[in-house]
């Protein structure tokens, strides 16, 4: 096999010499590349010592992105309890990278996050609406929690009545889920709302999106 | 009535544009003696620019570079290779249509030039070749085409590469099966070598994982390196760090040739067996940490109990601030203390608060 391996390495080197830039600069090409690797059963991001990483430089791109994602999530955790939309994460990561850095797409973020899971930090990807919520704390979020998050995504908040009517749950079940989210800091309770109390998800507050990470928050990110 | 904009920044305003089978002619409305013409054969392509707020509709005419026998015109040369025809009132759509037709039919190629319209021979008149702007536009167009070509070439090359990679995957599967069958006959060395091949290719190795773990020589080396790198940071942080913290610390320090999360985990799994002064520990929550061998989390629990007792009760946040730990690890310590029976919890919507377990101490 080592002969085959050497031959493959040569092929890859040739490919890299011609198209390494393409991978760096073109997010669509990266998607194609990743999808094709997955189809044949190869994980180009498994190891920094892999050929893919060494010769195409894909590894460094995603591993560094991983560090940046971790930093943003840590800095903002106290605001949102460890839940953040992919959009906000994308924005904040781009801000942190500065204007001369390579372009990074949402697909890139998702792939980097999938790799981070193995560190046992609770990173998870929750589909909501047309997008995703990224979890970055080891909090237990089961199907019930996920479904309520999805329900809350439309308006940024949810009430017990809405859960009862949309999901056909008993009040007790709805309350349990909402309390869990409150305890985890992922939801805030507004008891002064007209009608019944509203459970807001800071991760979904669009007003918070453009708010930069403060120096105090940044310190949290690098313990 | 239209005006013609020259790319060199000079504008010829208020004129009439005429189209013949051979030429594009512009005549100044006021000064009929000023007349400029371009042969249609000089045109590379034309494009429309729609009107906008404050902007009139335009046609951009991209031109070939001027030939050396160019007749005198308003400019001898220009750094631009296009001209813009600006339609202040109306007529852009119709003119574009007609000009496109003439460009398609190329009737000037079939008919002799014939009698050229008499143009004034003063310096303002004559055939004009605008150059310069077209060069820039054309370069952009070429770049676009080349980028497209590059992309399709890249995709082609990518497909071919993936074919070869697929062969490697198949080969590795058959070798893995052989190893499975011949369990005893394969040396540990050969197995380790095979695993490093899989590592290089990025192929998961389900067969050999059970027997020797996912580690390779590379991970062994890495584990030893980590032991060196992490000694001081661990001491500075009370002997314990989450794996996520380690990942960031190590990769920030490296700058290049970063570790993948899997590399880190696989290396850390070997710490204990290599008898290094650090170890990997996994809490019930799934949180993974690196501890100094000398670190004893259970002892730390005793001091945590003291701290909590002094304050009556503490949340993970409060405890973290007091002790100078990350919230993640503070919570794990309190949870461990609870597991050992020293603390109990008050889990309300205001947060998770820990109290000394009076059931234990006061029974």
From TrEMBL, chain A:
One of its GO terms (biological process) is protein transport to vacuole involved in ubiquitin-dependent protein catabolic process via the multivesicular body sorting pathway. Coiled coil: none annotated. Keywords: Coiled coil, Cytoplasm, Protein transport, Transport. GO terms for cellular component: ESCRT II complex. Its main location: cytoplasm. The keyword Ion transport does not apply. This is Vacuolar-sorting protein SNF8.
From TrEMBL, chain B:
PANTHER family: VACUOLAR PROTEIN-SORTING-ASSOCIATED PROTEIN 36. GO terms for molecular function: phosphatidylinositol-3-phosphate binding; ubiquitin binding. Component of the endosomal sorting complex required for transport II (ESCRT-II). The keyword Transmembrane does not apply. This is Vacuolar protein-sorting-associated protein 36. Pfam families: EAP30, Vps36_ESCRT-II. Component of the ESCRT-II complex (endosomal sorting complex required for transport II), which is required for multivesicular body (MVB) formation and sorting of endosomal cargo proteins into MVBs. It is found in: Cytoplasm; Endosome. InterPro entries: GLUE_dom, PH-like_dom_sf, Snf8/Vps36, Vps36, WH-like_DNA-bd_sf, WH_DNA-bd_sf. Its main location: cytoplasm. It comes from Buteo japonicus. Belongs to the VPS36 family. Residues 137-164 form a coiled coil. It comes from the Eukaryota.
């Amino acid at each position: 096999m080592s002969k085959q391996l050497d031959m493959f390495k040569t092929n890859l080197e040739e490919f890299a010499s011609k198209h390494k830039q393409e991978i760096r600069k073109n997010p669509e090409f990266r998607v194609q590349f990743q999808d094709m690797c997955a189809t044949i059963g190869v994980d180009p991001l498994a190891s920094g010592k892999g050929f893919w990483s060494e010769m195409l430089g894909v590894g460094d791109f995603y591993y560094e992105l991983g560090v940046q994602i971790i930093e943003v999530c840590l800095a903002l955790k106290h605001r949102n309890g460890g839940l953040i939309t992919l959009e906000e994460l994308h924005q904040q990561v781009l801000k942190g990278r500065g204007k001369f850095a390579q372009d990074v797409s949402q697909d890139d973020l998702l792939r980097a996050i999938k790799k981070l899971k193995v560190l046992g930090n609770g990173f998870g990807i929750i589909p909501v609406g047309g997008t995703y919520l990224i979890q970055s704390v080891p909090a237990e979020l089961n199907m019930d929690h996920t479904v309520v998050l999805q329900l809350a995504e439309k308006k940024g908040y949810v009430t017990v009545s809405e859960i009862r009517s949309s999901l056909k749950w008993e009040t007790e079940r709805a309350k349990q889920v909402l309390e869990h989210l409150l305890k985890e800091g992922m939801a805030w309770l507004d008891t002064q709302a007209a009608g019944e109390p509203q459970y807001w998800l800071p991760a979904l507050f669009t007003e918070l999106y453009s708010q930069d990470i403060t120096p105090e928050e940044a310190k949290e990110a690098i313990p | 009535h239209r005006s013609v904009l020259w790319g060199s920044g000079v504008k010829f305003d208020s004129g009439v544009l005429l189209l013949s089978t051979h030429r594009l002619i512009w005549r100044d409305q006021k000064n009929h003696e000023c007349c400029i013409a371009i042969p249609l054969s000089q045109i590379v392509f034309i494009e429309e620019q729609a009107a906008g707020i404050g902007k009139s509709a335009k046609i951009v005419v991209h031109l070939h570079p001027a030939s050396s026998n160019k007749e005198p015109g308003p400019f001898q040369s220009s750094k631009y290779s296009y001209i813009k025809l600006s339609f202040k009132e109306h007529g852009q759509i119709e003119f574009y249509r007609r000009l496109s037709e003439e460009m398609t039919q190329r009737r000037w190629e079939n008919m002799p030039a014939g009698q050229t319209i008499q143009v004034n021979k003063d310096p303002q008149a004559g055939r004009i070749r605008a150059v310069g702007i077209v060069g820039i536009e054309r370069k952009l167009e070429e770049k676009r085409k080349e980028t497209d070509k590059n992309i399709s070439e890249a995709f082609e090359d990518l497909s071919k590469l993936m074919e070869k990679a697929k062969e490697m995957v198949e080969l590795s599967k058959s070798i893995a099966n052989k190893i499975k069958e011949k369990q005893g006959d394969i040396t540990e060395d050969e197995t380790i070598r095979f695993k490093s091949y899989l590592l290089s290719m990025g192929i998961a190795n389900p067969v050999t994982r059970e027997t020797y773990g996912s580690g390779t020589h590379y991970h062994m080396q890495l584990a030893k390196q980590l032991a060196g790198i992490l000694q001081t940071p661990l001491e500075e942080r009370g002997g314990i760090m989450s794996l996520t913290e380690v990942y960031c610390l190590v990769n920030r320090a490296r700058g290049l040739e970063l570790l993948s999360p899997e590399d880190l985990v696989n290396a850390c799994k070997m710490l204990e067996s290599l008898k290094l002064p650090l170890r990997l520990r996994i809490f019930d929550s799934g949180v993974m940490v690196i501890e100094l061998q000398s670190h004893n989390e259970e002892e730390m629990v005793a001091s945590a109990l003291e701290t909590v007792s002094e304050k009556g009760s503490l949340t993970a946040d409060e405890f973290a601030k007091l002790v100078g730990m990350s919230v993640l690890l503070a919570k794990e310590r309190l949870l461990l203390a609870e597991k050992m029976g020293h603390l109990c919890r008050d889990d309300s919507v205001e947060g998770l608060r820990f109290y000394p377990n009076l059931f234990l101490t006061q029974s």
